[in-house]
Amino acid sequence: MCGISAAYGKHLKNKEQFIRDSLALVKHRGYSLNEIKVLENCVFGCNRLQIVDRQNGIQPQTNEDGTVSVVFNGEIFNYNALQSTLSSKGHFFKTNSDTEVLVHLWEDYKEKMVEKLDSEMFAFFIYDEKNDVFFAARDPYGVKPLYYAIDVLGNYYFSSEIKQLVPIKEISEVKFFPPGNYMLSGKLVPYHAFPRQSKNVPSDEEAILTVRKLFDEAVKKRVETDLPIGVFFSGGIDSSSVLATAIKYNKKITAFTVGTPNSPDVVVAKRYCLENNIPLKVFTPPSEEKLSELIPEMVYATESFEPNMLKSGIIAFYLAKLAKDNGFKVILCGEGADEIFAGYPEFGNCKTDSEVDQNIFNFVTSLPRTQFQRVDRTSMLSTLEVRIPFFDTAFADYCIALPGKFKLRNIGGKLVKKWVLREAMKDRLPDYIVNREKVVFCEGAGYAGNQAVGGLFYDIIMNAINDAEFKKLKNDYPDWPIADKEVAYYFKYYARYLFTKAKFNQQRPTVNTISSVKA
């Protein structure tokens, strides 16, 4: 995991100063800082979190003659197989890093190289000096961040975070690089289509077995490392599925949980880890008042004014810090399962399969600006790589395409959400987890929930912003969706940091806002 930055153009000025300033704003994303390269029409660099071939994987990585270079954020899980294939075709590798594979893939396959990558998490920029072309790409569902901008002179810029681009006066707008797309010298092209409901509906047994098989494969490849592995663990069906499956393939797993001593998540996490002899680290965050003091910092870190993301983000910040303080660099989490399997309370109102599908589409396509963004920003503040097995491309593609009856099922008059996942995990999880109701992150940790009225920070924010300030913000920013005082409170910091250049955020994402059932 890394922080990357790049610029390309015939009219670039002060290239080295730009790249150093850009990377200075994301020092938290890597321990090896300012790995840069400056060329006539291009400059690029990386703050690298060393995971694969930690000593030799210095970026930018190049091909044999140095004419193709890449900076990369993420992990390529099939890089060994790709390296073997490319070596048999005559390519010479100077490292055993997954980053170096990318430049050789470009030489042989050009833009078709994205079809060779097995990963839910990548964003990279390649510059081919001989042909004077650049190529950038982002993973299929947007787990890893990527932004771009075009200045008044026609120069292109790329970054891992919005804050790297907003200080540049020649840039008036920071753009969202869409997931499942690549850009070849300025032209965006989609390479991954959102899955639609399968016409060949499997039997219950076939669906359950396939979900289990694909999930096992997804987790197995993500725990194959010589570094210790942690799992963010709430005791819900999602993170429990990750933890129970991870220990099948790597016995050196530690669970990390945050919450007040008697909170639902802490109680279940302690019980499960004790029963299964799994090391568990627990941290109790401070009071709601103390947590609220982090709001300005968290708006800057997450680059968002979405209440849902900020409430969960502040709790997640302590979870990531707990893992870092215990010496971990690689973590697995259960993010994304609610979006794939219709797990949020909002899905309880769906009457038809088409409603379920539409809601899943809305939630999943919002993930790069909601939960994926929260996971990325809060984990990178502690320089952690977080892997998301539920969005292994093969797994996510298959599960999203399953009809709604596999996700929501009425059993004995009770609506069971995430039905197929619960059935798939019955072979490895106890009933008290398989049948546990959804508890949103804040409530599971022992705090108020995501709801607009009465949620976490509600009383504090209502006392911190008055009617006049709320009205002024709405008048000053008429194009922005400042719906209530809570949004306004977060937005005033968002605007202060110049994030209003990211105009794509004028369209609010789909988020869960209903308080969950207590477990």
Compute the number of strand runs. Answer: 19
Based on helices, strands and strand pairing, what is the structural class? alpha+beta
> What fold name goes in the CATH topology slot of the largest domain?
Rossmann fold
Number of helices: 19
The CATH H-level homologous superfamily of the largest domain: HUPs
| CATH classification class of the largest domain | Alpha Beta
Write the layout of secondary structure elements.
Blueprint: E1 2-8, H1 15-24, E2 32-38, E3 42-48, E4 61-62, E5 68-74, H2 79-88, H3 98-109, E6 122-128, E7 133-138, E8 147-150, E9 156-159, E10 175-176, E11 181-184, E12 187-190, H4 204-222, E13 229-232, H5 237-249, E14 253-258, H6 264-275, E15 280-283, H7 288-292, H8 295-302, H9 307-325, E16 330-332, H10 337-341, H11 353-366, H12 371-380, E17 385-387, H13 393-401, E18 408-411, E19 414-417, H14 419-424, H15 431-434, H16 441-444, H17 458-464, H18 467-476, H19 485-496
Parallel strand pairs: 13-14, 13-16, 14-15, 16-17
Antiparallel strand pairs: 1-3, 1-9, 2-3, 4-5, 5-6, 6-7, 7-11, 8-9, 8-10, 11-12, 18-19
Helix pairs in contact: 2-3, 4-5, 4-13, 8-9, 8-19, 9-12, 18-19
Q: Could you provide a short overview of the structure?
A:
This protein has 519 residues and is an alpha+beta fold. The chain is built from 19 helices and 19 strands.
Features:
19 strands, 2 domains, 519 residues, 19 helices, alpha+beta
Provide structural commentary.
- With 519 residues, this protein is α+β, with helices and mostly antiparallel strands.
- The chain folds into two domains: 2-190, Glutamine Phosphoribosylpyrophosphate, subunit 1, domain 1 (4-Layer Sandwich), CATH 3.60.20.10; 204-506, Rossmann fold.
- The chain contains 19 helices and 19 strands.
- The chain has helices at 15-24, 79-88, 98-109, 204-222, 237-249, 264-275, 288-292, 295-302, 307-325, 337-341, 353-366, 371-380, 393-401, 419-424, 431-434, 441-444, 458-464, 467-476, 485-496, and strands at 2-8, 32-38, 42-48, 61-62, 68-74, 122-128, 133-138, 147-150, 156-159, 175-176, 181-184, 187-190, 229-232, 253-258, 280-283, 330-332, 385-387, 408-411, 414-417.
- The chain has a six-stranded antiparallel beta sheet with strand order 2-3-1-9-8-10, covered by helices on one side.
- Strand 8 and strand 9 form a beta hairpin.
- It is globular and about 65 Å long.
